Amino acid sequence: MHIYKIFLILPIFKTNSFSQNIIFNQSNFLSRSSETRSLVEALNSSIKFEKMVNITIPKVSTFISHSIIDEIKTNLNIEKIDLIIVDCSLSPIQHRNLEKILEVKVIDRTQLIIEIFGLRATSSEGKIQVELANLNFQKTRLVRSWTHLERQRGGLGKVGGPGESQLELDKRIIDNKIVQIKKQLLKVKKTRNIQRKRRTDISIPIFSLVGYTNSGKSTIFNKLTSSQVLVKDMVFATLDTKMSLVNLPNQNKILLTDTVGFISALPTELISAFNSSLEELFSADFLLLVHDLSNPNIENQAHVVLQTLKQIGFSDDDLKNKIINIFNKIDLNSEMPDLNIYNKNKFIMTSATTSMGLTDLKKYIENKIIGKNHIVDFFISITSDYIFTWLFKHSHVLLERNKENSYNQRIIRVKISSHQLDKFKSFFPEIKIKFI
Ligand SMILES: Nc1nc2c(ncn2[C@@H]2O[C@H](COP(=O)(O)OP(=O)(O)OP(=O)(O)O)[C@@H](O)[C@H]2O)c(=O)[nH]1
Ligand SMILES: [Mg+2]
User: Fold this and answer.
1) For the residues of 237-273, what is the DSSP string, one character each?
2) What is the CATH number of domain 371-435?
3) Quick count: other Cβ atoms within 10 Å of Cβ 103?
4) Sheet (strand 347-349) strand order
5) Do β-strands 242-247 and 253-258 pair in parallel, antiparallel, or remain unpaired?
6) Model confidence over 326-368: pLDDT tens digits?
């Protein structure tokens, strides 16, 4: 397998530069650059040169100045660099010009992340989604670059823009592929919707682990569900959503899902491509937001996760109602930062690797789903067998009698948790309820 020799360019912006709501500046430069290095390591690559570049105003044509380009050029031949990575978002023009002048493949942060997702995707759905992300990205560029498309045609090919007709052809190929892939995704989505409906029908509460990449979601998932999801000290270890049953201390059950981690400046192409698996998050009753206490950039990571959740469609109210914070890796740092997050006071501290706090977490979850118990009378027509069945399954029936002066109405008195009562109301909104 070819190991890429990389020249990594790390821009330091003099003033705050916003890209997809993320601030790139001097204060978060260190943690950002170490994150970028771990992203680069996730490719088959070795970083031969690294250059920090101060940027006051990015050059429209080449992003970096000509003197820096010259400096880079001198280093290129020393190690036979075959890929330059610029840790920011390049415009199509900047991208094309850099490749032309430097005569080496150049990719930016978005392409880097798409490439890693491409390597990690294992399920057919994951692969389709990455391909769609890549095609959407290519479409905005329409210049030849380091793409799956090109690799399918055989190798990286030569650098430089092809003729107009080649571009037209590329555009048509891309458009046709996008149509095909969207059709495939639609099929997957239908199956997912059926599965999701089945899950809501059985009415087991769903909890989803969400959080920054590498925060420990899969480790928590494995410990709580006795599963074997890949856990690794690397970015984007998990790409496919996993779901499994968790038995709680008092015999209650929940479904737990493990999802792809978020990262700063997650390309919009990727977010929209992954929508069908991220949609799973919307059927969650609660979101377990995992924070990595050992990461110095925890504040920015929390910000990124919340922004991404909003970007995929969660409202402020959803997040307020659903988020439970988990502060993980307390074995490495137990000092609590003061973060600007939802439900600051709803949190559990854990160390997933040593299992510290996991029993507390289970108890917390159990209390959450049992919530407050209510004694309630339901007024149900005797022909509605399915409602009787539902109540016997999900609540504790205390007594049952005929309604006075009615031959076809029964009153069922039950003890029921807030959670199940909410479910009941959403399934059977027409049924009259009386709190006792
Ligand atoms: N010291 C310590 N390490 C932990 C803890 N929890 C997880 N880790 C480590 O952190 C790394 C990442 O863990 P994962 O569970 O793969 O993280 P993830 O959030 O699923 O990551 P992605 O799938 O990439 O989003 C692994 O090396 C884990 O062993 C913890 O409580 N303490
Ligand atoms: Mg994971």
Assistant:
1) ---S-EEEEEE-TTS-EEEEEE-PPB-TT--HHHHHH
2) 3.30.70.240
3) 12
4) 242-247, 253-258, 206-211, 286-292, 323-328, 347-349
5) antiparallel
6) 999 999 998 999 999 999 988 999 999 999 999 999 999 988 8
Q: Between residues 30 and 89, which one has the greater pLDDT?
A: 89
Distances (CA, A) of 264 to 29, 219, 285, 302: 12, 21, 26, 10
Return residues with CB closer than 5 A to ligand 2 (ion).
Answer: 218, 237-238
Residue nearest to atom 24 of ligand 1 (CA): 236
- Find the residues whose C-beta lies inside 6 A of ligand 1: 211, 213-219, 231-233, 235-238, 261, 328-329, 331-332, 351-353
Atom of ligand 1 nearest to the CA of 209: 19
- How many residues can be counted in the chain? 436
Contact present, 284 and 207 (Cβ < 8 Å): yes
Look at residue 25 in the predicted model and tell me its pLDDT. Answer: 56
CATH code for the structural domain at 204-369: 3.40.50.300
Q: For a pocket test of ligand 1, which of 219, 233, 242 has the largest count of ligand atoms closer than 8 A to its C-beta?
A: 219
Distances (CA, A) of 286 to 82, 153, 281, 340: 46, 45, 9, 19
> 23: how many CB neighbours lie within 10 A of its CB?
15
The atom of ligand 1 lying closest to the CA of 236 is 24
Distance 276 CA to ligand 1 centre (A): 25
35 residue type, one letter: E
Note the pLDDT tens digit of each residue in 167-223.
677 788 888 988 998 888 888 777 777 776 666 666 678 899 999 999 999 999 999
**Among the bound ligands, the one closest to the CA of 120:** 1
204-369 shares the fold of 4-121: yes
The pTM for the full model equals 0.77
Which CATH superfamily groups domain 4-121? GTPase HflX, N-terminal domain (3.40.50.11060)
